[in-house]
Design a protein that fits this description.
Layout (H helix, E strand, L loop, with lengths): L30 H15 L8 H29 L1 H9 L9 H21 L1 H32 L13 H13 L11 H35 L14 H17 L6 H39 L12 H17 L2 H31 L6
Helix pairs in contact: 1-2, 1-4, 1-10, 1-11, 2-3, 2-4, 4-5, 4-6, 5-6, 6-7, 6-8, 7-8, 8-9, 8-10, 9-10, 10-11
């Protein structure tokens, strides 16, 4: 006799044919929404030209980035409290673990936006305090991820041939974001050793990140050449390579500006010269990579590129190129870099609008947080 077992009930996550959102599916990549939003405000405030009404828009976007940071931090805390098995599995998954580098960058990005944009709303004193707290927390987290995630890759992850990915850059780029945002705090410290220590610390953070990037980039390019284009869902991650390029140019410019508070006239001139000598060729390579990555994205989009959280890679990395071009415009007086910053900012705003709308739609439909 054949016994037919009754069909099991549908899990709660698929009742009525619609996935039910759950923080179990909320990974560390969600901090990219915070980074991508905060950079829109910071980059807009640093443009070398004044656009009527842009200041007010940047303040609104800054407020949104603060709300997003609070929401994602709370959701991730709930994720760790309720779904520790999944959280630990994410750390041991070589495809997910590098995204933990987004947390420190989200903290420092919102801190920088608070000082550059939010000071007009909450006052300079409060903005400095918020930025200092977020920068300290973000820098500590950046150092932990920059050391810990590559350590996990060596000790625990099992990575096969052709599995290198641009997301590997996320942990090692995090200290560069601290290096780029820290110099803005130098003028708010009392004259003396504190200013010098902060500036030298930023130089050390930039060096650590840059050398880590030099280790990762050949692996990524080798994977592309030997194994062809990335899978469609990962193709937007090609834009992540712009992050260390634009952010390091921004950091060089910011540290040169901060040298005015720690060095004499000769030292200031030398620092600005060094930032230009470094930044111009790096920005040139960033534009070359932008053209190549853009062509691959267009190629993939024509064949079908489904929306995923990797699309947020179109925002923050491009924003770092905006701030890098603005720094070069400031130090060279070149109108070409100024217009480059404006053009890239237009692309950043368009990308942010598209990706934010698609993310909101995915949340409304329950697909982005489905199990």
């Amino acid at each position: 006799m054949v016994t037919v077992a009754p069909a099991p009930p549908l899990p709660a996550a698929t009742v009525r044919g619609r996935p039910r959102p759950s923080v179990r599916g909320l990974g560390p990549n969600w901090y990219a929404t915070v980074m991508g939003t905060a950079i829109v405000a910071t980059a807009g405030a640093g443009l070398p030209v004044r656009v009527p009404g842009l200041g007010g828009v940047c303040r609104v976007v800054w407020g949104l980035s603060v709300l997003l940071l609070g929401a994602v931090l709370a959701a991730r805390a709930a994720h760790w409290a309720r779904h520790r098995d999944r959280a630990r599995a994410d750390l041991l998954d070589p495809a997910v673990a590098p995204f933990h580098g987004c947390l420190p960058m989200a903290l420092t990005a919102v801190g920088a936006a608070t000082l550059s944009v939010g000071a007009e709303v909450i006052g300079v004193r409060a903005a400095v305090a918020v930025d200092a707290a977020l920068w300290a927390a973000g820098t500590l987290a950046a150092l932990l991820t920059a050391a810990g995630i590559p350590g996990l890759m060596v000790a625990r992850h099992r990575i096969g041939p052709g599995e290198a990915s641009p997301v590997w850059l996320l942990p090692v780029v995090a200290p560069m974001v601290s290096a780029a945002t820290g110099p803005a705090l130098v003028p708010h410290l009392p004259p003396g050793q504190g200013r010098e220590a902060l500036l030298l610390g930023c130089v050390a953070l930039a060096g650590a990140s840059l050398l880590g990037t030099f280790l990762m980039l050949p692996l990524i390019f080798d994977r592309l050449v030997r194994h062809g284009p990335l899978p469609a869902v990962l193709t937007p991650a090609l834009f992540l390579v712009l992050g260390p390029l634009g952010q390091s140019t921004t950091a060089a410019g910011g540290m040169a500006d901060a040298a005015a508070y720690t060095a004499g006239a000769g030292g200031l001139a030398a620092a600005r010269f060094a930032s230009v000598v470094y930044g111009v060729p790096v920005m040139g390579f960033a534009l070359l990579w932008l053209a190549s990555a853009g062509a691959l994205v267009v190629r993939t989009a024509r064949r079908g590129m489904p929306f995923a959280m990797t699309w947020w890679g179109f925002t923050f990395p491009v924003g770092t190129c905006v701030t890098g071009a603005a720094a070069l415009s400031r130090h060279t007086g070149s109108h070409a870099f100024g217009w480059l910053a404006v053009g890239l900012y237009g692309a950043l705003v368009a990308a942010w609008g598209l990706v934010a709308a698609r993310t909101a739609l995915g949340l409304a439909r329950g697909t982005l947080l489905a199990p």
